[in-house]
Design goal:
Growth Hormone, Chain: A; mainly alpha; globular; 19 helices; 0% strand
């Protein structure tokens, strides 16, 4: 018993290293996430179509590389992959402030950096989500995801505030330097983990393309995961519209400055913290099906406030504050439960490909929505396009209705061994 106690303490200490490193990296990533489009808007004076291309390129890497990333992660140990991608992202983002200081920064360079950084982030995220079940015990997965979700929410709270101040004081390109440094901290924290990682099972003798689609086949064969995937495809297509137009709407329609914009987005972090703190309790009390459906509806209703801010810019700041808080609260509850479910249902030999398939069904849809949103906004206006996006998000909830009708199937689904 004393030996088991020492083992558990070591595991918790190793998880703490991952947690601390990810918290710092998440803060830095928020600076780049907001700093890159602000660099395009403020420094390079980008128009709506250019913003659409920037959003599409930065997210297209998920669509292009997600399935391949799953194959790589399932064949290799996850921890070295995470360290390597962190170091590469740090080196890449250093190019933004360097190019700016040398007066060489252009939309082409910014789009190239955003695209490569996006590809590296796909590989890191798939490895990271697949590594967690090897680091903690199965009964600690939900709580570990909840804690990591709290880190993401805390970053959402601090990152935009820091971005707003840094953009004002040192300009957007220089602010991105902090994100590069945060990736070095993340790489160091992952390197410091001492728990031995299991050796991956030998890869089957199959064509690489067929192997890449194994994750999609697993999800499609599981009724619960299939419903969640179909909802993600539709919701993230609509989300691509917001990805392109959110900053344009806030700065050019609602006429918010960067400090106010940082404060609004930071409220999303506060909502996310609230959501992460109650994610486990809600799922236990209400059941996972009602939680997934209820949070999807909450996210959709919250997003209606974004086009309302365009229609009534005088109250736009208030609308966006409410939207960020409740939308991010719902999203955090949803994603903590969804990620835990994936990690619990998929066997280790295929978990990387299952995670990458869900990445494809969610983040991989953003470039299509981003390009469409940029085109529609240029032709019909920002406000009208945002109404279309809000309708798409709400309609995506329809895919989850079967989860409410079949609540008695959840225990069987959660323990089934779907090959």
């Amino acid at each position: 018993m004393r030996y088991l106690g020492r083992v558990n303490f070591r595991v918790r200490r190793d998880f703490a290293k991952l947690w601390v490193g990810q918290t710092i990296s998440e803060v830095g990533s928020r600076i780049s996430r907001d700093g890159i489009p602000l660099t395009a808007l403020i420094t390079l004076r980008a128009n709506p179509m250019q913003m659409g291309f920037l959003s599409a390129i930065s997210s297209a890497s998920v669509f292009v590389f997600a399935l391949g990333a799953g194959v790589v992660v399932d064949r290799l140990k996850k921890r070295p992959v995470m360290i390597a991608t962190d170091l590469c992202r740090a080196a890449l983002l250093l190019l933004v402030p360097l190019a700016s200081l040398m007066h060489l920064l252009s939309m082409t360079i910014l789009m190239t950096i955003a695209g490569i950084a996006g590809a590296l982030t796909v590989l890191f995220d798939v490895a990271y989500q697949s590594y967690l079940p090897a680091l903690v015990d199965p009964d600690e997965l939900l709580d570990s995801n909840r804690r990591l979700g709290m880190s993401a929410s805390a970053a959402e709270l601090l990152g935009p505030l820091l971005t707003g101040v840094l953009v004002k004081v040192v300009t957007a390109p220089i602010a991105i330097l902090l994100d590069a440094l945060s990736f070095l901290v993340s790489a160091t924290s992952v390197w410091a983990i001492r728990k031995a990682e299991p050796t991956p099972e030998p890869a089957p003798r199959a064509a690489p393309l067929a192997e890449a689609f194994d994750g999609l086949r697993f999800i499609w064969g599981h009724p619960l995961l299939r419903a969640l995937m179909l909802r993600s495809v539709m919701a993230f297509l609509a989300g691509g519209f917001f990805f392109t137009l959110y900053f344009l709407n806030a700065t050019r329609v609602v006429h918010m400055g960067t400090p106010a914009l940082g404060a609004v987005v930071a409220l999303g972090g506060a909502g996310g913290l609230a959501g992460a703190s109650m994610a486990g309790r809600l799922s236990t009390r209400l059941g996972s099906g009602p939680v997934f459906f209820g949070m999807a509806v909450l996210i959709g209703c919250a997003q209606l406030l974004i086009p309302l801010s365009s229609q009534f810019p005088r109250y736009g700041f208030v609308y966006l504050c409410i939207q960020q808080f409740f939308g991010d609260m719902g999203w955090m509850i949803y994603i903590v439960n969804e990620r835990t479910l994936r990690q619990s249902l998929a066997p280790p030999r295929i978990l990387g490909r299952v995670n990458s398939a869900m990445q494809l069904a969610s983040m991989g849809m953003l470039p299509f929505g981003a390009l469409t949103g940029g085109y529609l906004a240029s032709r019909y206006g920002i406000a009208q396009t945002l109404w279309v996006a809000s309708a798409g998000t709400l309609l995506s909830c329809l895919w989850l209705i079967p989860l409410l009708k079949n609540k008695e199937r959840w225990p069987r689904l959660l323990t089934s061994d779907v090959a």
